What does this fold into?
Amino acid sequence: MSDKIKIAVVGLGKMGLSHFSMVNAHPKADTIACDGAGFMVDVLSKNIATPIYKNFDDLLAKEDLDAVVIATPSRLHAPMVGAALAKDISVFCEKPFCLDWADSQRLTDLATSKGLVAQVGYHYRYVGAFAEMKRLIDAAAIGRITHIMAEAYGPVVLRPKRTTWRTDKAEGGGCLYDYAAHPLNLLNWFFGIPDQVMGSHLGQIFSEGTDDEVFSTLRWDNGPTAQLSVNWSDESYRKMSTKISLIGTNGRLYADRQECQAYLRKPVDGLDGHDAGWTVKYTTELTDECWFYLRGEEYSAQLHDFIEAVAAGKNGAVQNDFASATQTDRTMAMIIENAETGQTVGEARATAPTSAAKKRGWFGR
Amino acid sequence: MDKLLFGDNQFFGINHMSEEKARAQAMRFQRTDAIMDVIDVAYDAGINTFMCTTHERIAAIAKRIKADPVRYGDFQFYPCMPYAHKYANAVTEHGMIGALKEFMPKDGLLATALTGTKALATKEVDGIAKVLIDMEMKMFAGTKTPVVFVQNVFTDLLLGMGFTRALRIFDDHIREKHGAEPAYITMNMPALLTALEKEGIERPIICSNINKIGFRMSGGYDAYLDALKSGRVRAVAMSVYASGAIPADEAIHWISELPGVESIVFGASSAGNIRGTKALVDKYMGEAA
It folds into this structure.
């Protein structure tokens, strides 16, 4: 028996092409591509050896697939993932997972009941600096975390009049789904789903059909409060930049694509190499080499984990399983509801005991 | 090729260690004068080759070089195309076809072919590729460009897809139309070498990470050394310091003893680092660097 898996990459847009290139280069992948008719299918089918299907149903009917990578516009994720799971095919789906989180939950349950590998492409969890941040949070490095700033900026929509699906909210486009999903997914990884969402703003700058900037305040009961600030119309950034800052009772953590900076007020037991004061770890030193490098180790590593898990017959994803991506879909749904209604979404926090305003003398602090 | 080539990452806010440093560099180098000052330091230190992305801002540099042929008599460019973010952002904004049209001459036959509904013929696809290459080369007209590279994201995207025929089109076109040596930047040197040989491209010039600690040498350190020893590749080494992980003297000394490495490309913004690297290359790789 061959130890290769038969895998199809569906959707050859910006993410799909890059996924296809990496999957096709993987030694354990026997790869097929699929996209609707168009320029890219045209060019590729004349120039590469890989078979390319023009119809997803044909692909599922004719090929005995072990796995699919779904990299189509977000609106198509739910029906395509559903069709693949129904045929017992493991799925790697590009983010965001589903536009309606009820679909996300249903597909999570279906994948779990079938014991399939089901993963979503939140690649930031594969960035060394953010993995280091997660490790430090879990080790309680900065004590009780109260204060979070989660940000993402980049140059996607810089002028009016655009025509692709990424700018159409109904298709799953927009700054919330495309950009904010990443820092939110990291917050879900660190702290779970927020209990309340308030103060959300989905603003338009240049787009007509969807949001270009996002603000929100997220609260976790007995946990931190986060400010989310995201803008994809910021030309001062060369490419997307995601950053998380955390302040806790024992210090501060900051991470972006390149580095994780930790400031500890006091050393923490069991955390070697972190003295009081600053410790900086770079993604370059935190990252393993990959089998094929296209645009960052994180993109290669997530596909490697997926392919290896399917090849090994595992019954779940190593990282970014459907359940974790469903948390992010739910969080985004809370932000949309809050922005639309102006009402806080989620149970209000039990109010803290109100101390009567104490009258103080001039020096009575 | 010269033994030492000057790179351009530092000028465009690219830093593999820190976003903060990258931004500080972008601020420092937002004026062409600031870039020219550093290029002048390198040129006066005897580094004649500037290996640079076809970033819009390079056009201004090329203009300066052309304007003073006495001062820059030995100056040459090794263009690296395309500038990937320009295309990636355009694809996000205009879609695949829209992005292509953005970069094509508006009145050409091929632009017209793209607006049509019928499938493009292979000949037309090749034609589009050649026009795009010519557009990228435009800013260098009147300068010396003896070697022209394909950027790594593009090389590796094509390599992964198995669309290496596109690299063959590039190879032929750069030789025939531009009278230059085609070359390739990659993060996957051993795999690329094999693929290029299958396209009939012998002893290609390939630029890839080559450093003592195996940093970002995808395909494995041993496979890189085997390829170098085989004599099948003319290598240009980048990331020789592995983003600062290897001391300069040790890094250059190690590279100098490898077979098959013809050049080193490095980026630096301070005169000290530029002259320091030049001195090390002279010391270990010969005065003729």
The longest helix of chain A spans residues 322-341. Chain A touches chain B through 47 residues (CB under 8 Å).
